[in-house]
């Protein structure tokens, strides 16, 4: 499948008084057109920073340090999102690139009716008022909401409805790429499941590509095609859902999968220790203090994200023949 | 959807509307009750507090009379005059009875607040009505202008929070906000009024003019009003600027602002519909609060600029221990402040749909 989004060497951090603390380090990632890519990791591993960096929504003290993010449009033209001017980026937003933010509950403006919030963008992108209105109504239908919701204020809607309105707004211009950050975190399990199904339906119907940021392995298992496991600001492993759940390569992924309760029962293996914060990432492999398979190079050398076979990548010295040979 | 469920939904909506209306009525009644209670409490406190101030108004009045006539009376005549005055002003009775009489006349006698000592035999009520337009004119105009300017400026420096210019604006506003209003007024009088002689700094209008509907009089009135209003505006406006800036900054951190930016809206739309609209709601409430807190500043300004408003009247009345006039000034000031606050309160639902439902 063709690549839709190409992330190269992306680093972002938090600007402090004296220095910048790196939160996301040298991330390389290709997102294929039409897939749902789940990005999983513990709190503070940099997944939300990655999402906001892709959307170029970092606000101080968050800063972008380096990297390139190329969005390949259908006509074969690539745009480096990080190099575009603000107005060029505004043109691209919503039409090609949309965002479902973390904390969707509070992402609607409390003083405007849903209609205005859904259509103001469409109108600024050149649609007539009538077109914008019918687009908004059609988008609401995709998430099983009635068009009369348009006349409501956000406080008149339930949490699940608000979440759906956000999704509808995000897909109203049929964007190529949707970045969804912790889409279902605040919702009950039933609503969560419905919304995930709706999202999968939208992908099938509109052919959109979705990057789903979440800490919930269950959500990933339900809906994602591929999974990127993040740890301490770097991608530890990337592969298809089946591969990662069945035969995880990276010791961190193994630990993560091992900590999911299984139907078959059996003891849940937790990961010892806790994830490091960006202020004290360990040298070498950032996972080495917690790693059960540690050997010497792990303490000094940062493992690169390497292809294991055509569809899997892992950043671990265990799978690096050269390093293994040196040791 | 079937017709049946449609009508049921309609009934439910009508019921909700009815309940909403009852709710509004109850709210209005409660507001009005608080309104009356506040007026009563203010006048009661004023009645007793002013009588605690040392100095017998009758002696002061007699002293003035003696000085004006330039001759001494014998003690018996003085006693007679004082007794006569006491009777006129209703002060020959015990205090509780005076209070009851005062309330009775005020409520049942069509706002009969008694005669004033300052301009005897003029009625206090007429005196206050004559002075009130000056105070209300200066006060409401300057507070409203300060609010409009401060809100706009605060929104702007909140929006540009990290620029050098807005940081400088914050320092200047903070300095102005903590400056007492009389210092600002004195500064303006000294520099603008006397040193540079740009604008008149005393009196309501030029001395040789009479009130009339002529351009000359009106322009004189307006130029004389600039400095008093400016003193009020600078201090209050700086406060509004800082308040609005803080509100903008907190709104800028809201999730719906990030979402608005992600939607690719123009910065102007984000500022206008998303940031400003939301920051405006508490700012309107702030206006209601400030209205009550800044009237006394206007009184001081009137005295400094020699304007014939309620403030100067109050100072004159204080000198004579003219209880009736002082009470009337308090009563009407509270009345004005409460009314302005009520107007602001009723305007809130227009801005905030969440209040509209529950009010």
Structure, explained:
- The complex is a heterodimer of chains A (327) and B (359).
- Chain A folds into 2 domains: 246 residues, 3-Layer(aba) Sandwich (Rossmann fold); 71 residues, no CATH class.
- In chain A, 31% of the residues lie in helices and 24% in strands.
- Chain A contains 11 helices and 12 strands.
- An 8-stranded mixed beta sheet of chain A has the order 6-7-8-3-9-10-12-11, sandwiched between helices. A 4-stranded antiparallel beta sheet of chain A has the order 2-1-4-5.
- In chain A, helix 6 links the parallel strand 7 and strand 8.
- Chain B is an all-alpha fold and 359 residues long.
- Chain B is 80% helix and 0% strand.
- Chain B contains 14 helices and no strands.
- In chain B, helix 6 crosses helix 8 and helix 8 packs across helix 10.
- At the A-B interface, helix 2 and helix 3 of A face helix 9, helix 10 and helix 14 of B.
Concise structural overview:
With 327 residues, chain A is of the alpha/beta class. Chain A contains eleven helices and twelve strands.
Top keywords for this entry?
heterodimer, A: 327 residues, alpha/beta, Rossmann fold, 2 domains, 8-stranded mixed sheet, 4-stranded antiparallel sheet, 11 helices, 31% helix, 24% strand, globular, B: 359 residues, mainly alpha, 14 helices, 80% helix
Question: Which CATH class of the largest domain in chain A is shown?
Answer: Alpha Beta
The run of helices and strands of chain A is EEEHEEHEHHHEHEHEEHHHEEH
Profile the largest sheet of chain A.
8 strands, mixed
Query: Using only CA atoms, what is the Rg of chain B?
Result: 27 Å
What value does the Rg of chain A take, in angstroms? 21 Å
Percent of residues in β-strands of chain A: 15-25%
